Fold this protein.
Amino acid sequence: MSTFDAIVVGGGHNGLVCAAYLARAGQRVVVLEAAAEVGGAAVTREIAAGFRVSSCAHILHQLNPQVWSDLDLERNGVVASSEPMPTIGLGADGQHLKLSPDEIQTRAEIAALSGADAERFHPLMARLRRFAGALEPLLGMSPPRLGTADWSDRSALLKLGWRVRRLGRDDMRELLRIAGSNVADLVEDTFETERLQGLLAFDAVLGTHLGPRSPTSMLTWLYRLAGEAGRALVQPVGGMGAVTQAIARAAQAAGAEIRTDTPVARILVEEDRARGVALDSGERLSAPVVVSSADPKRTFLSLLGVEHLDTGFVRRIRNLRMRGNVAKLNLALEGQPEFTGLASGDLGARLVIAPSVDYLEQAFNAAKYGEYSPAPAMEITIPSVHDSGLAPPGKHVLSALVQYAPYGLKAGWDTAKPAFEQQVLSILGAYAPGLDSLISARQLLTPFDLEREYRLTGGHWHHGELAFDQLLMLRPVPGAAQYATPLPGLYLCGAGSHPGGGVMGAAGMNAAREVIAREVGE
Amino acid sequence: MRRSRWMTGALWLYDTLAGGPHLLGISCEPDSREAMFIRADREEPCLNDTLQDFEGATNATLHALQRETQTPARAVADRGRFRGLFMKTYDAVVIGAGHNGLVTGCYLARAGLSVMVLERNPYIGGAAVSRELYPGFKYSNCSYVCSLLRPEIFRQLELPSFGLQVIPYEGSLTHMRNGDYLASSHDHDINRREIARHSRRDAEAYDRYALEAMRQCRLIKPLLMRTPPDPTSLKPRDLDELIFLLKHFNDIGEARLYDTIRFWTMSIAEFLDEYFESDVVKASLAGSGIIGTALGPYSPGTAYVLLHHYMGEVDGAIGAWGFARGGMGAITQALARCLQSHGGEIRAEAEVQKVVVKQNRVTGVALANGDEVHARTVVSNMDVKRTFLKAMDAGDLPATFVEQVKNFKIRGSSGKLNIALDGLPEFPKVPKDCPALTGDMHFSDTMERMERAYDDWKNGTWSQDPYLDCLIPSQIDPTMAPAGKHYMSVFVQYAPPYLKTGEWDDQNRAAFGETVINQIADYSPNFKDLILHMEVRSPRDLENEVGLTEGNIFQGELTFDQLLFNRPVPGCAQYRAPVKGLYLCGSSAHPGGGVMGAPGANAAREMLRDRGLRMAGWSPA
């Protein structure tokens, strides 16, 4: 039986980040990845000969700066394929709204629709970024516990309070007001242009089980902005797989061992402590610390087993909401697609189909009842515009997030998937006529597929709904929110833990810090 | 007091007039309706008169003065202002005789202040009224059941001695489409057996659920009668209160604290999903999460709305609901009697048009009929939009504040039917002696149906399959209807204040009523034949008659961004308006709507505090 200081279950970006940090701290670490390559949901796969695409996550905008510099990802090969991407809200009428990182350009773009909106746009975004800035430091630390007598928790909370207080009276009041509110109210109170309202609301609800009129959808937007912390939207050369490959190199350079094609069957427990893992192959690996980057339900309910946990905790885990709502569409295209009214120079942007708040809300309505949106919202990128290595010359790949496509589809995904695929393509076709004739290969990953192929319970790529009651010290559940679990020696480091998914790497980093503090040097 | 008023008047007159014999008019005391006329060259009164014939008296005195001095005498230039100086100035004028306005009035009058409550309608009560709209029947035509009225208020104002009696009723009944039903009961064992009929597992879970709901009620109740602190303020009082709150929550312990955060932010559907599996069990409980709220049961924050309906009590039975004997008007009638017994006055048919502000300070209110009522303080029981956007000039308020008020969400989402019945409707699928028939009846047996009803509202139509809260109070309270006949109150969720197709009119109001009637008739074959008279109320009717903006029964959505220190507007959540002497006492203020009286009592406490007084029988907060 091989012996390690720590075993990391799962070679997604968080597992790899955690392993890299542990290895850097002198630990003998092994990462066990079930798939043939590391990366989890941040991978680049070939969908047809010569066509490669980031098959799940497709934009890099939240990677934690600490992780970036500590693991020296730049030197390890992560290169942005382009300048920061603008975001373009597509209109079916060929009238589009482009929000680019350039303030003057964006102002002019909005002013063409409404002068008042143009005046209000940057002050609002600046204010939201200030709010996000006050929350941002929380992402890189273990969430403080509430109601304890521990002074480190209290000081973390006081610091948060101080940061919020330092925003100034008006900002603080506004933050406390809108944090629990819904994004539709804010954008409708501020702007008159439907397209702008829809485009902004889209960011708030992407990846959540919320519509723009659902209370707390402002919080998810602030949370996203905090994760971005002013960083630009980019796509790495070689797709998202390049990021996880770079993290893997950093981990290996620090001494971590990575084993692919190595599914873990079970976490081994001896004397009420995690002692290692048993592999599907029957092999056992032993270590005093097991860190799981698998989602919490998989970790506790299938890898560990409820017999090692008390009922209250198990109930919380079972009640964890992690039913994905986002499908992923990957297309191989024989030529450059044309979107009505869109200059070909703008094809490299992040293209969003969310023409109004009502459009999004209607799309969400269906998801509430276990139906897919008849007219879904989409985030589309054509990464091959900037990164010619992804497709043969003259050809392209298109990657789109499609929301809402609920995991628990009443009709069942096996039967409904073809119809949904048709639906999605016809919506796309309304914006890009002739797209159909360019498609040489296509891949639609429903949440059901994501669960099967990427081992994401519920097909939820945040490993759990981003909702008020599943954030911070409540993520994934109280009792396991500081990465340590009720079982000594077992830790969580995946997106199911604070601060959640989105290729941040923060969960892996925070977990490693927690493991080192608790286990190393004892 | 007498001397200082005398001096004020005198000085003002000396400023105004020059030369010749003048007439001074000074009222003796603020409460007196008498005017004393005093010659400027002497200090003793030359005539006392009542204000009724002020003009005649002035002229008579001027003539006398003229005769005596043989020179033309002058009174003050501006008779209106002069008159104003003499008219009674109240310590407080309350705009609106709803339950909160009356509660505020009672507490102020009890503390010895002179109080005038002004009501626009010919009857008092706001949305807590009993109205005879069909001979022999009393309709509680807005609010219809009683539980939230704070027991502190009930006791301190001695409402029973002014005729208020609350009769608890039994449980609730949810009719199911498959012909079955779920009849909940206050009796633990009966309730458990009934739930077990639908799901054994849910019967087990119910106790856990009830315990959690009760814990949350206990936690929030002490906050209802307190003024929320301003979290941005460094004033000792706010810091004190903030520390009190932190300690209050900290004391419940880590695990329960997490449960509380979850409870406050989850949707009622998610919360119930954690406990129950049976659709009808969940549906029967979820109703309390959406009543009066422009949100569906799947929307985050609705678990809190449920709490808002659970935190009341009847006779110490927490979470219980009851009928006010004689209808909901009995509550406001008792409050009015209490107010009058402490010397407070009420004037009906006195619509306030404007709050009069001079130099950033209120001086009274101007009525629609042109009268002015003077007061040192004005307290508005109207909702925040009506108060600041309609009854005030934007120029008298800070611009950002006006913007915030505009952005406050008051969304009408409910309608109401009041029905006079010739007899008791039969529900053949339910045993005749089922005690739950005397309580709330619902016809939505899944949460999905409720959510779809909400989707209709979002679309700008009334729900095609609405959630109904239907009661026949005359079964328990015989004063509501003639013998053998019955009054039925049907609360309807959802109905929008503005229809997609245009304004509410008689035609679509009738269609709306029809939708509701049909739903009940599906379960009660003789129901339609029993209808003698029916009043259908859209949110717009509620707005037009009671003055609730958009017909929102809570004077503002009970969402997270509009609770506690955010209600109604951040920085203005302590019942004081940004104009000196103006206060809010309606449900737009913390802790929100329902016939609770807490905003009224809290506002009174703050007003008294500003006068250096303490509310009797009140622990300091």
